[in-house]
Structure formats: C-alpha cells, structure tokens
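Session log. Operator J.P. requested a structure for one protein chain; no other inputs attached. Running the standard single-chain path with token output.
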Amino acid sequence: MKLIVTTPFGGYQIGEEITDPAAVAAVLTSDQAAYVTQVAVDLPPKK
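Structure written below.
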C-alpha cells in the first residue's frame, strides 16, 4: 500500500506518494492520517 498526500504536512506536498512501509505505518497511526489517501500498490501485469 502507498499513500497519496491530499493536504500538505511535515514536509510532504499535495500529490506526493509515501511508499516506505515504516513511513506509511507512522502516518496512518498519527493525526496526519486525515491528510492522506490510501492506494493499493500496482501489481505487475500477468504474463
């Protein structure tokens, strides 16, 4: 899972992606969780 920033906070700008698992977990367990949208990670296409 990744996060897309919808409201700027803590050095992140609107539209920025947060993909580091530790950063994702930290944001989701903080007050800043309201400033992001969760997005499923794109899976590689089947061959």
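Operator note: Residues 3 and 25 are 10 Å apart (CA to CA).
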